User: Fold this.
Amino acid sequence: MGRIHSVESFGTLDGPGIRYVLFLQGCPLRCLYCHNPDSWCIKSGQEIGSVDVVKDILRYKNFIKNGGVTLSGGEPLMQADFAASILEGCKQHGLHTAVDTSGGVSLLICRRAVELADMLLLDIKAADDALFRKITGHSINNTLEMLEACENMRKPIWIRHVLVPGLTMDDKQLKALGELLAHYSCIERVELLPFHKMGEFKWEQLGKPYTLGDTQPPESEQVEHARSLLRGFGLPVK
Assistant:
């Protein structure tokens, strides 16, 4: 049994093709710009078994057969055994699988799920540990461990990175990210995601202080500058 936050049955942004996106409850990080703070608590959400999850996924098989299934969150690897059971069920039915993760969970806990997934969408909050800690409240170590493991497994990865003015929307930080990622052959794509404020109301509803209330999304010219900078490191930036 596990706990889920929500489902998107026709996702187009979380991996290749049209995908069934399952958002799991629980996350160890506390990102300043999180748009799903209601997913942090692992005891919230709907309780359901992995068999029933796979049954629901199969209802959409004709729509997602050229895409697949993505486990997201929260942090799906926080429920590592539940995630692995779902991935195994999808694999039995020939469905492509991806895990959208921050790498915030130790591989000692979630290695089997990582091995079962066809690919990872790895959200790297920052390349600099001090900034990573400022954004998430945790060290970058588990994320780097995940990246290195995927390189050794030859597991395809799409890197995701949120551009936040005043935090990650900074040439020095972007160059550090480029230097970090340039050495990995498992990276198939780098997605730069502009910061947005769509989840701000959830913080208010939960009574949590939102410290980025005065931060505005980056301008399109700033985003393109960041893309050009990372392309200079030979990275496949989208």
Notes: Strands lie at 2-11, 19-24, 46-48, 68-72, 97-101, 119-123, 157-163, 187-194. The mean pLDDT is 96. The longest helix spans residues 80-92. The chain has one domain: 2-231.
